[in-house]
What we know:
This protein is mainly β. It has a single domain (17-181), classed as Lipocalin (Beta Barrel). Helices cover 4% and strands 52% of the residues. It has 1 helix and 11 strands. It has one helix at residues 78-84; strands spanning 20-24, 29-36, 39-45, 48-54, 63-69, 73-74, 97-109, 112-121, 124-137, 140-150, 170-181. The chain has an 8-stranded antiparallel barrel. Strand 7 and strand 8 form a beta hairpin. Residues 1-9 and 11-15 have low confidence and may be disordered.
Amino acid sequence: MRYVLIVLTCSLLATPVQADQWRSTPASQFGFVTTIENVATPGEFKRFLVSFCFDPQHLEAASLRVTVDLAAADLGDPDMNAVLADPAWFDSAHFAEAVFVSNSIVEQSPGEYIADGTLDLKGVQKNVAVPFSWTRSDATARMAGELQLDRTEFAVGSGEWASGDTIGIPVQLKFDVQLEQQD
């Protein structure tokens, strides 16, 4: 998958306050856990990009964009990975990416935030609240969190797979993103 470089230019925001600009590093992880025949089955997205304009002191200038390569979903088995690309699942031939965009980030408690935004997955757009923790050390930072999605709300696992009898309907997403500050 080719990534079009998406740079959230914090200075283009309507507010005169400017947030720091961050980008994910290769050390970042984005995993998921589904159930197959009632057995928890972990997987991961091997390719994704996080662009983040963020300064905890100026949340009004914050924005977040996460782009996930759906063809890079990995359940640890080539046959299962091939099924994920099918039209009933991610249909990655027609929907190469899932994209989450937020321009509303609020602090829940010190170091804990929620990004309210829109997830566009398989052509379906839904509002999603993504909780995350934030820690910074000089020009590096870490954001980590998890949330649960109902895969059927995005037509993932449609047709015979929609019932949840074999493949569970809730999917737990877990992320641990290492970020570098951009100039």
